[in-house]
TrEMBL record:
Coiled coil: none annotated. GO terms for cellular component: membrane. Residues 56-127 are annotated as: Disordered. The keyword Transmembrane applies. Its main location: membrane. Residues 59-95, 103-127 have a biased composition (Basic and acidic residues). Pfam families: TonB_2 (PF13103). It is a single-pass membrane protein. This is Protein TolA. It comes from the Bacteria. It is found in: Membrane. The chain crosses the membrane at residues 20-40. Keywords: Membrane, Transmembrane, Transmembrane helix.
């Protein structure tokens, strides 16, 4: 474009044209720097510059939009409140359920403990009943044994008494058969003689324990006892204890 405005004589000298162009550019740069420097020196510091910013005013809202927004906010707040209420209710229900579980578990343990104590008490009561029953049975057996023993003893005593009476009479008869009345001894005399016997009827001793008043008569009775040996005894050996020592009245006339 520059070459179109140059005179024709310069068009035929390219070097010169370039020099002129460079000179123009250099001057333009220097002038631009000078202008920029001048503006910089005239501009106040950035900290003191107050730049006005235009804030656009919000568009005016209609009353219907305000009502709708208020309704939406109210509905949202109500929903959030209901959500919190439901969460609190759920938490309360869970706490109550957990508490009920704890109470149920405690009651279950208490019931199990009572049942265990009841079973233990039943076992102890059963043991006590068995012990008392055994004691009762033992006492009954002892009572029956004592009664049986007493019955046997009574029967034995009855047999012994009967045997004593019987064999005392037989012994007295045997002694009477062996006795000879001494010369000069009056009739009607009698004495009680005690005789100690050995098994089989052998006489260990014979002694008058209640005298007739006549020494001759008494000695004759003692001699008759020895002479009559062995004296008659019952065949039952259990009755011998009743004849170890026996007393009987000797009266020749009876």
């Amino acid at each position: 474009m520059v070459s179109s405005v140059l005179p024709k004589k310069l068009r035929h000298n390219p070097g010169r044209v370039r020099a002129i162009v460079y000179a123009v550019l250099v001057h333009a740069v220097v002038i631009g720097l000078a202008v920029i420097g001048f503006r910089w020196t005239m501009q106040p510091p950035s900290s003191e510059v107050v730049q006005a910013v235009a804030v656009p005013e919000p568009p005016a809202r209609k009353p219907e939009e305000d009502n709708k927004r208020a309704q939406e906010d109210g509905a949202r707040q109500k929903a959030e409140a209901e959500k919190r209420r439901q969460a609190d209710l759920k938490k309360k229900q869970e706490e109550e359920l957990a508490q009920q579980r704890l109470i149920a578990e405690r009651k279950k343990k208490e019931a199990e403990e009572k049942e265990r104590q009841k079973r233990a008490a039943d076992v102890e009561r059963r043991k006590e009943e068995i012990r008392r029953q055994k004691l009762t049975e033992q006492s009954l057996q002892e009572q029956l044994a004592a009664e049986e023993k007493a019955r046997q003893q009574a029967a034995h005593a009855a047999r012994a008494a009967s045997a004593v009476d019987k064999y005392r009479s037989l012994i007295r008869q045997r002694v009477s058969q062996s006795w000879n009345r001494p010369v000069g001894v009056a009739k009607g005399l009698k004495c009680v003689v005690s005789v100690r016997l050995a098994p089989g009827g052998e006489v260990l001793s014979a002694k008058v324990v209640r005298s007739s008043g006549s020494t001759v008569f008494d000695r004759s009775v003692e001699n008759a006892v020895y002479k009559a040996a062995p004296l008659p005894l019952p065949e039952d050996p259990t009755l011998f204890d009743n004849f170890r020592e026996i007393e009987f009245l000797f009266s020749p006339e009876e």
